[in-house]
Design brief:
Layout lengths: L2 H14 L5 H8 L3 E6 L2 E6 L2 H8 L2 H12 L4 E6 H16 L21 H12 L8 E4 L6 H14 L4 E5 H13 L3 H12 L3 E5 L8 H16 L3 E6 L11 H8 L2 E4 L5 H15 L7 H10 L4 H16 L9 H7 L13 H12 L3 H5 L5 H16 L5 H7 L5 H17 L1 H15 L2
Parallel strand pairs: 2-3, 4-7, 4-8, 5-6, 6-7
Antiparallel strand pairs: 1-2
Helix pairs in contact: 1-4, 2-3, 6-7, 8-9, 12-13, 12-14, 13-15, 16-18, 18-20, 19-20, 20-21
Length: 443
């Protein structure tokens, strides 16, 4: 049915059945025009902001009457022609410009996938393939620095490339928009903001936990959620915790968050952290080769935060600038470079583990390593354990002595010196040391 016929029928029914005061119909309804955005989305173009405010009071009446005419529920918004034209021109300008992503844009291609985030990655790709389906809203949660924002940006960028109209906002940006509209004290400002957001096919909101206890903003937010879900348009949210653990939200909001799919991004596992480090090394263009055991060491000790990993690689890059291109960055370089950086390793790499690995190799007990026996096997195990405590854990000689039965620092230095000489002189012993080191750091 033509838009004009739909509107004429609606005006006739409103007048005949006296659903709205006749003065309002004559002043604001009969002088308005109906604009069709899609089969389920209409905008009523009103002559004045006052008219927009008044007709919004009868929005439910319009929706119900449209249903009787079209045999289906539709979305109805009210706007002045000036506001609508301004928004429409912005959209046309965007469509007329071929979209290319800037260098360094966050995409699915440069999102490193591992066991800790593969579920969230799959869900994100699913909403791109089938927007507005059962995964609506998509709610991604996890600690800071694990890649939630990267994934939300990847959704935004891919949806834009697919010619979808997308709005991405942080919770701070969203709150600022809503508060500014509320502070103007004009209902038409609120309606204009609703229309601006609802005109999108994807609405992506980062860090929704910061909307906690913002009652007026959340009331507006709840209306936006209803509009998107009712019209089959995609919502994507991120948070630092699951919906159930969010405080300062109405139960109905938590229910909405849970009505689609909630999926976590967990703490980085070592293999994924290693992949991210290798990717960052390649992306940053580090000229020197980095040995694998050095990468593994970084992954094991600094894998709690993607942002931290990027900072560590920047330090590697600066280290590389100061050295010859032929210099290979090895484990010793990395240990020395990051000796003052707090480790994220939760005690997995410690003296006890070193002793256990070495004791198993030499078939001796941990008690023997800490004791006073001086058989060749026990002495080698003890001295090697001290050596690894120095080069892997970067412990001082005093710290190491305390871990080995209270020995003084000169005894520790002598033991480490002996191992270094054996490594230099005996190739087979050097191979044993390399094998044990790899086992200790989990290579």
């Amino acid at each position: 049915m033509e838009t004009k016929k739909i509107w004429d029928q609606l005006v006739f029914k409103l007048t005949k059945e006296k659903l709205i005061d006749q003065d309002i119909i004559e002043e604001y309804v009969a002088t308005s025009e109906l604009h069709k955005l899609s089969d389920k989305e209409f905008v009523v173009l009103v002559r004045s902001n006052l008219g927009v405010t008044i007709l919004n009071e009868f929005k439910d009446v319009f929706i119900y009457e449209f249903k009787k005419i079209l045999n289906d529920y539709v979305s109805v918004e009210f706007s002045t022609k000036e506001v609508f034209d301004k928004n429409h021109k912005k959209e046309e300008k965007k469509e007329n410009n071929s979209l290319t992503l800037p260098a360094g844009a966050l995409t699915f291609d440069n999102f490193i996938v591992g066991s800790s985030n593969k579920q969230a990655n799959l869900a994100a790709k699913s909403v791109i393939a089938n927007p507005g389906s059962s995964f609506n809203p998509l709610f991604i949660y996890g600690d800071s620095g694990l890649g939630k924002t990267h994934l939300l940006q990847a959704i935004k960028n891919q949806a834009s490339l697919n010619d979808k109209k997308v709005l991405y906002l942080t919770s701070e940006e969203f709150t600022k928009k809503v508060v500014n509209a509320l502070n103007k004290g004009d209902l038409s400002e609120i309606e204009e903001l609703k229309m601006e957001i609802n005109s999108n096919e994807f609405f992506i909101l980062d860090d929704v936990q910061f909307l906690s206890k913002k009652d007026k903003t959340n009331e507006f937010f709840f209306n936006i959620i209803n509009n998107f879900t009712d019209n089959g348009k995609q919502l994507v949210f991120s948070s630092d915790k699951t919906p159930e653990l969010l405080n300062g939200f109405d139960k109905r909001m938590i229910t909405r968050f849970n009505s689609g799919l909630s999926t976590p991004i967990n703490s980085l596992d070592i293999p994924t952290a290693k992949l991210i480090i290798e990717w960052e090394i390649k992306k940053q263009g580090l000229k020197q080769k980095v040995k694998e055991d050095a990468v593994v060491y970084l992954a094991q000790n600094f894998s709690d935060d993607v942002r931290k990993i990027k900072g560590l690689v920047n330090r590697l890059l600066f280290f590389g600038i100061q050295n010859d291109l032929g210099h290979v960055i090895d484990l010793e370089d990395v240990i020395d470079l990051f000796k003052d950086t707090p480790s994220a390793n939760l005690g997995l790499l410690n003296v006890k583990k070193i002793k256990e690995v070495v004791a198993k190799k030499y078939d001796v007990t941990l008690k023997a390593i800490d004791g006073k026996a001086r058989t060749t096997a026990i002495k080698n195990a003890r001295h090697l354990s001290m050596y690894f405590a120095k080069i892997i854990l970067n412990h001082t000689s005093t710290q190491i002595g305390a871990e080995f039965g209270g020995r003084d620092h000169s005894t520790v230095l002598s033991a480490i010196s002996r191992i270094e000489k054996l490594i230099y002189k005996e190739k087979e012993f050097k191979k044993i040391v390399e094998s044990l080191k790899n086992e200790i750091i989990g290579k």
